[in-house]
Write a structure and sequence with these properties.
Elements lengths: L2 H12 L4 H14 L5 H10 L4 H9 L7 H18 L1
Length: about 90
């Protein structure tokens, strides 16, 4: 899949039912996703399959994923979001 087509698909998947979550995921996609390695990109796509409620809690740091394949990525994204909001 071409890079721009893949990014467009991911942009669409980042659109959720909660505006705050939409904004967080768009920031992550635009600023963090390009820096992720292949395993982290795969984990990010798996992350987008999760419920809005779980994603919101995880990214805000009020919860953590039980899935070990998501834990490291979520911690990295939390730190990145905190840095940008400071």
């Amino acid at each position: 899949m071409a890079h721009s087509a893949q990014m467009n698909r991911l942009r669409w998947r980042c659109r959720r039912g909660m505006l705050e979550l939409d904004l967080m995921l768009q920031q992550v996609l635009e600023q963090d996703y390009p820096k992720l390695d292949a395993a982290e990109r795969s984990a990010f796509e798996h992350l987008l399959e999760q419920s809005d409620q779980d994603l919101s809690q995880w990214l805000l740091g009020t919860g953590a994923p039980a899935d070990p394949s998501l834990q490291g990525l979520v911690q990295r994204l939390q730190a990145s979001l905190r840095e940008r909001s400071a």
